[in-house]
Specification:
elongated; about 5% strand; mainly alpha; 43 helices
Length: about 1000
């Protein structure tokens, strides 16, 4: 391009002879018309080739109306310069005299650098835009075939394709066609191109063409008649032999033709490429044959296909090749598409498909993703397609491959609310228009909104935003994305409420059958009961019902995202019934962003948390408080419990108050655990399962210790007032002492006392025993609150020995009779309640036993190994799978704990870090002391954490303790969700458990059973 040099002494933007600092009138006009580089534009307008156009006000106005006046002018100069001198005047005269042509040409040049390049290379293609016959306004496949008819090779096909694309773009940027019509034209042009490419391939291989019939089935956006400017064109190939031909050879011939067709469209030549042809939606994907017979396709779909493949077939359309074969294919697969909702795994597949897949988008790009990001095009398309799959089996009006047509049909049938459909239609059109204009600029396949200011300005202006293009574009984009994000889930659920509510005149109700189909597709096992719950919650004209109608569409989605949607909805109804007249309840769920989602997660994750909540529904307030899910400290809990005991009338009322606090805190702990394990929209899942285990163990231990302290105070007050005749302490043992209690764990304890000065030993012993008996009775009284079971079987002499001993009695027993297993059990001893000084003196007493100086002798080590081996053979329940028993199975809790405890007893005297009651702490200390390598420590830690989480999961899901995975499929799925596995991946969960514990067992064999 020739650009004139500057006039000597001439300041850009100032006419020669004009005073310095003053701009020329042309410069000012260019600024007014939207040029961002007016100095450069002035120079371009001065080139000799534009002499006929220079100073023409109409031209400047037309340039100013384009998306990017600077880009349009640069493209125009290149086009004029490319004309032979004999033809240049024809272009400039036409440009000045014909407004429609001027608008079309400059509109394209101001929107697409790539099409400007094409026009500069093919200087006569501008004539395509000069006249429009009536048929040219909305061309179809036939018109595009005519436009490509003379192309006999790859290069000519590309030129002809771009010429047709030029006309589509011109209609688009001038507003002659809307975004849906443009997408349809692009799909029709793709159809014509595939036909032309197949013709070229057949001409190149007449022998192959003579052997076979080949049909090309368009899929994806091409099949749906809604293609982008630059997109992969998804296809499936179907082949059959001609009469008398060998099938194997015919399919080979068809495969060669199909491969050549793909290369014709996809390969880069001197004229660039058209678009990639992608056949990966075929059966078996890229691993399957490129061409199959019709019967082979059907055999695959009937036996092996997954739900997403039927979802993809929803857009299948025969576009090229043998029309009869194409029609046979569509006729054969269509019924399979609409039967997909009846398949066994449809619900699980739908749940997986409904979860947005953004993991593969780089974090920096998520916010700029038009297609896959939150509130993007994919959200609308998936929602529409899944509703089509659910309801299309009984309503043929929904059988459209085009997103906007299908959305309109869903609204007309009452499957989607009319207002929601209208908002989604508007948002989808805007987002698709953005996508079109972004791609049109350089004809590159992208779904990312640009970051560059100039690109954003051009994009905004191309969409008619002229006052402040960048700010207006960002505002409109975010608004429409927000609409999609808000509505794409509610799209499923709002009509379910309309099905049971009073509707405005003219609104169409979802039929009970259709509502049941949808609930079933979303994972509800009892759709009829679910509808009854919805009716009870949302029908009527009260303010309460109105708020419920606002909340339920979102809650239903969260319930459906769980392993047991029915339980979630039933629990929500029960909580709502219990708190229905409480003014703060629905307000909390409506106004506190996290409360409603937290409640949905808690109610649908299993039985334990909802049972705890329903015993005192007001605890739901915990879920709306940002600090509500944090566990309370031991001191805080003990202070609250003791205060409640002090206010109570009598021991039973006092312990009922203490148990009420425990129930509330158990709910807080289970809720925090479930929400941390599942994650929410605003807070992702806790990535460290060990942190979750530690939080649960610490929290349950603290609240049980506080409850025992309360029961002790209540028992003492009832008979002795403020002071018991003997000092008394409760020593935590086992998981209690190790701060590793699960939801279903008993509290293992020892009771120790020491008579006060002047008190008879027998009197003191009687008092201590009466206190223990009363504590145990009070903590197990049948009430609405879960009981706290106290187990003292780890005491000297076990069940045969006295429940309570004095400190001196413990000392005498341990000095004379203590066995190695008792020393091992004392590794977990830690004071939990009662007299602190006595508790500390008990610890001083047992320290030499559990951390013997110079470690364990050979006999003691052999005895511990013998006891462990005996326990493995005798204590595992009959019929239990040893590879899946979390406590006693291979690589489970017992394996890891005995290994760590053996190291503590052997090396604790020399390594202070090993003197802890906590397993994971001791394991880390053993690693730090060099007693095991890093990989082995990690293997044992991972197995211990996983086994602990399995036990917690079973209790959360079933409401009762268990050491193995549940056999019920729904309960097993719920355990999987808690452990971080998506629906349909329970097999993977069990395999992972076996693999992790198998590796742990190998470490145990070496460290525990190996050489001393």
């Amino acid at each position: 391009m020739s650009v004139p040099g500057p006039v000597p002494g001439h300041e850009p933007g100032r006419e020669p002879g004009r005073a310095p600092g003053r701009r020329s009138s042309t410069f000012t006009r260019l600024l007014r018309h939207g040029f961002t580089h007016p100095s450069e534009a002035e120079k371009l307008l001065d080139v000799p080739e534009l002499a006929a156009l220079r100073g023409d006000a109409v031209l400047l106005e037309a340039l100013g109306a384009t998306a990017d006046p600077d880009l349009a002018l640069r493209g125009l100069v290149r086009l004029v310069e490319a004309q032979p001198e004999t033809e240049r005047q024809t272009l400039t005269t036409t440009l000045l005299s014909a407004k429609p042509f001027r608008d079309r040409l400059l509109g394209v040049l101001g929107s697409s650098e790539a099409l400007a390049d094409h026009l500069a290379r093919h200087h006569r293609d501008w004539e395509t835009l000069v006249t429009y016959e009536a048929a040219d306004l909305h061309p179809g496949v036939a018109e595009f075939e005519h436009g490509l008819a003379e192309a006999t090779d790859e290069v000519a096909l590309r030129v002809a394709y771009r010429r047709c694309l030029l006309a589509i773009a011109a209609r688009d940027v001038c507003g002659t066609t809307d975004v849906a019509q443009t997408a349809a034209e692009l799909a029709d042009l793709a159809t014509a191109t595939l036909r032309a490419a197949l013709a070229i391939a057949r001409t190149a291989a007449p022998a192959d063409a003579a052997q076979c019939r080949l049909a090309v089935i368009a899929m994806g956006k091409c099949g749906g008649h809604e293609l982008n400017y630059v997109s992969d064109v998804d296809v499936i190939f179907v082949g059959e032999p001609v009469e008398g031909a060998d099938e194997g050879k015919a399919i080979q011939a068809a495969t060669r033709l199909a491969s050549h067709l793909m290369r014709i469209c996809s390969e880069t030549t001197v004229e660039g490429t058209i678009w990639p042809v992608d056949a990966n939606l075929r059966p078996e994907g890229r691993n399957g044959p490129l061409v199959r017979t019709l019967s082979s396709h059907l055999a695959y779909y009937q036996r092996w296909a997954k739900t997403w493949e039927f979802q993809a077939l929803l857009k299948a359309r025969a576009v090229a090749g043998d029309p009869d074969l194409g029609s046979q294919y569509i006729d054969a697969v269509s019924p399979l598409v609409w039967q997909a909702a009846e398949r066994e795994n449809f619900v699980a597949d739908v749940q997986k498909m409904r979860r947005r897949v953004v993991d593969n988008i780089p974090a920096a790009q998520v916010e700029r993703e038009l297609k896959l990001g939150p509130g993007g095009l994919r959200d609308v398309e998936f929602a529409v397609q899944l509703l089509q799959l659910v309801h299309g089996r009984s309503d043929a009006t929904l059988h459209s491959g085009t997103t906007l047509d299908a959305l309109a049909a869903l609204a007309a049938g009452g499957y989607v609310g009319r207002a929601d459909a209208a908002q989604l239609d508007e948002a989808y059109r805007f987002l698709r228009a953005m996508e079109h204009r972004i791609q049109l600029y350089r004809l590159r396949r992208t779904h990312l909104v640009p970051e560059d200011e100039a690109d954003l300005r051009r994009l905004g202006r191309s969409l008619g935003l002229r006052t402040d293009p960048v700010a207006e574009l960002n505002k409109e984009w975010k608004r429409h994305a927000s609409v999609v994000r808000r509505l794409h889930e509610k799209l499923f659920y709002r009509p379910l409420l309309d099905a049971v509510a009073q509707l405005a005149p003219g609104e169409i109700r979802l039929s009970p059958k259709a509502a049941g189909q949808r609930l079933e597709a979303l994972g509800y096992a009892d759709p009829a009961a679910a509808l009854r719950h919805l009716e009870a919650l949302a029908s009527g004209v009260s303010r309460k019902a109105a708020i419920q109608r606002t909340l339920l569409p979102v809650l239903l989605g969260w319930f459906a995202d769980s392993a047991d949607p029915d339980a979630g909805l039933l629990g929500f109804r029960k909580v709502s019934d219990a708190l229905g007249k409480t003014p703060w309840y629905l307000r909390l769920l409506r106004d506190e962003g996290a409360a409603a989602e937290n409640l949905a997660r808690v109610l649908s994750a299993g039985r334990l948390a909802p049972d705890l909540l329903l015993r005192a529904p007001e605890a739901v307030a915990i879920l709306g408080d940002p600090e509500g899910l944090k566990p309370r400290t031991r001191d805080h809990l003990e202070q609250e419990v003791l205060a409640a005991v002090g206010r109570a009338d009598g021991a039973e009322q006092a312990v009922a108050a203490a148990r009420g606090v425990r129930r509330r805190e158990l709910f807080r702990t289970t809720a925090a655990d479930l929400i941390g394990s599942y994650g929410t929209e605003d807070n992702p899942r806790e990535p460290d399962p060990g942190a979750l285990v530690d939080r649960v163990g610490e929290a349950v231990t603290d609240l049980n210790a506080a409850t025992i302290a309360g029961a002790l105070r209540a028992a003492v007050r009832a008979e002795w007032g403020d002071t018991l005749p003997t000092r008394f302490a409760v020593i935590g043992m086992g998981r209690f002492g190790g701060h590793e209690l699960g939801y279903g764990s008993d509290a293992d304890v020892l009771f120790v006392h020491e008579p006060r000065e002047g008190v008879d030993e027998q009197e003191a012993a009687k008092a201590a025993n009466r206190v223990v008996a009363e504590m145990r009775r009070l903590l197990q009284l049948p009430t609405a609150d879960p009981p706290l079971l106290i187990d003292a079987d780890l005491r000297p002499e076990g069940k045969s020995g006295p429940l309570v001993r004095t400190l001196k009695s413990y000392e005498a027993y341990y000095r004379r009779w203590s066995l190695v297993w008792e020393s091992q059990a004392l590794l977990r001893a830690e004071p939990m309640a009662g007299d602190r000084d006595l508790g500390e003196r008990f610890v001083e007493l047992v320290d030499p036993l559990r951390y013997p100086v110079e470690g364990l002798g050979e006999d003691a080590i052999r005895e511990i190994r013998r006891l462990k081996a005996r326990m493995e053979s005798e204590r595992l329940p009959r019929g239990a799978d040893p590879t899946l028993h979390a406590k006693l199975g291979r690589g489970g809790l017992s394996d890891v704990e005995w290994t760590v405890q053996l190291l503590q007893m052997r090396h604790g005297w020399a390594e202070p870090g090993l003197r802890t009651t906590r397993t994971r702490e001791a394991l880390a200390a053993a690693h730090a002391a060099g007693l095991m390598p890093t990989d082995e420590a990690q293997i044992l830690d991972e197995a211990w954490v996983l086994a602990t989480r399995v036990r917690n999961a079973v209790m959360l899901v079933r409401g009762r303790p268990g050491d193995t995975f549940p056999s019920d499929p729904r309960e097993l799925a719920a355990v999987g969700r808690y452990l971080g596995y998506e629906a349909g991946h329970v097999g993977e969960m069990v395999d992972d458990y076996r693999r992790i514990t198998r590796r742990a067992r190998a470490v145990v064999e070496e460290l525990f059973y190996g050489a001393a």
